[in-house]
Amino acid sequence: VGRACTTRTTNRMGGDLPARGNFAALTPADIEHFRSALENGGGGGGAVLTDDKSLDDANVDWMRKYKGASQVLLLPRTTSQVAAVLRHCNTRRLAVVPQGGNTGLVGGGVPLYDEVILGLKRMDRVVSVDSSAGTVVAQGGVVLEDLETALNEHGMTAPLDLGAKGKCQIGGNVSTNAGGLRLLRHGSLHGTVLGLEVVLADGTVLDLLRTLRKDNTGYDLKQLFIGAEGTLGVVTQVALLAPRLPARVDVTLVAVPSFAAACAALRRAKRDLAEILSAFEFLDRASLVLVNTQLKGTEDPLPETPAPFYIVIETASSSIEGSHERARLDAYLEALQKEGVALAGVVGRDRKHASKLWNLRERISVALKHAGAVYKYDVSLPTEEMYDLVEEMRRRVAEKVAAGAGEFDFSGVSVLGYGHLGDGNLHLNISSPAGYHPALEAVVEPFVYEWTAAKRGSVSAEHGVGVMKPNELRHSKPPAAISVMHGIKQLLDPKGILNPYKVLPQSGGGAGGPSLLSRSKL
Fold first, then answer.
1. 3-state secondary structure string, 252-273?
2. Measured CA distances, 61 to 100, 425, 497, 516 (Å)
3. Is the peptide bond before 446 cis (omega within 30 degrees of 0)?
4. CA angle (168, 171, 176) in 5-degree steps
């Protein structure tokens, strides 16, 4: 405490981190101020943590690719406490990283240097549920799975579902504009968030917390904070639309002969299943094999029909019998087989079986982590061209394998593709059990970003920008748009204390501070 972290560190994967900003260093007086604001006067203990275990966990992201050197983790319980912390940090020019469940994949929720970590996990109260209006208000630290459980008790459901739902928090979901598995049905958080309470960098509490469906009174300021990744303010409360909980859900896995067939199945699903369609996902054969190889309790549900691609479809019914909806699903699957679009398929027999089918798609990311080093990319592309990027990347790796010996052995590298086919979101993964290497990264970057830009796609579909992709923002945003974004940041956070080094490209270069295990691993 009392000495800024300024040691220069170079990314092991090549390239530099942004240099540490002109921020103050934490002092013992700051720690005492935080204890007074958060723990004294009936606030309770455990709100100001400086022990190694707590800091080790909070300084490293879930993928263990970014590691900061923060010396304090703050855990407020109320909005007023968040405001007090930010007011002090702004006055002192102490950089702050808001942190939710720390499940992000682009380094947005961990420090790069010695930033103060502001964790929201103790702000975990579901404030209100209105089953008539179909709305819910929750503090930012409510875990998504806990929110879903609370809503289910009222016959309602959250408008998003993520693989990390057991740990991610709703404030973080909003701050990253998380997409997930049911965006096809419910739309993005830009549409389902009705209101927010946000604390600005100087401690001002911006009360935009409304549950109104209609509010046409000037600029819709809440939209600025959805997807801003904590760079403009800290989300402390969220008001959301909460749809009715389906009485019955069917999950179907279908083997298809090509990616074109998967797209054809999607087109027919939008026509034949229409309003009962909740999710439409795809994975390639390599992804299925990886899951079954790396994770216990998984198996190929169609072992007699190996296929290059699989689609996972979820449909919802308003009645427990769901006879009409199930008849539509059966007719749809029969049509796919008659047209040669489907090779085989299986519908979940019960909730447990349906969960096992979903896990084959949801747990690919976990399987990749078990397999070793992985470069991960999250891009939006025209639907029918999504998989072209996977095939082009395989060709690039194959060329290196054919070239023979070099500074890196490419023979063990595999390229996998899966994602949200229903909304044009590809997750491209380059798995390298031999580890990360600059020669492999040079094959991948900047090619992935340039290829995506040429298709007028987005270099970040749902994972955000974080610290990984600020310099790639130019591939998806014109200079004028980036300039406006800088202007908004300057207006709301003139000292730049909120989540520095994230989202927006920095002027100048340089590196320093914590180790970056892999800039490219999403």
1. EEEEECCHHHHHHHHHHHHHHC
2. 11, 23, 20, 11
3. yes
4. 80
Degrees to nearest 5, angle at CA 411 with 410 and 414: 85
Alpha carbon 416 to chain centroid distance? 19
From 444, 387, 448, select the one nearest 418 (Cα to Cα).
387
Residue 43 and residue 123 in contact, taking contact as beta carbons nearer than 8 Å: no
Residue 516 has a pLDDT of 39
Which range, of 1-15, 53-67, 256-270, averages the lowest pLDDT?
1-15
Q: Whole-angstrom Cα distance, residue 516 to residue 169? A: 25
Task: Let me know if 203 is exposed, middle or buried by CB neighbors in 10 A (0-12, 13-18, 19+).
Answer: middle
**Cα separation, 208 vs 419, whole angstroms:** 33
Backbone angles phi, psi at 457, to 5 degrees: -95, -170
Burial readout 104-142 (b: 16 or more C-beta within 10 A, e: otherwise): bbbbbbbbbbbbbbbbbbbbbebeebeeeebbbbbbbbb
Cα 463 from Cα 477, distance rounded (Å): 16
- Enter the pTM of the model: 0.91
- Split at pLDDT 50, 70, 90, the class of 515 is very low
What 3-state class would DSSP assign to 89?
helix
Residue 138's nearest CA partner among 81, 183, 79 is: 79
Pairwise CA distance, residues 400 & 396, whole Å: 7
- Quick one: tokens of 362? 């949801």
Tell me how far apart the alpha carbons of residues 25 and 23 are, in angstroms, rounded to a whole number: 7
CA proximity to 150, closest of 181, 171, 129: 129
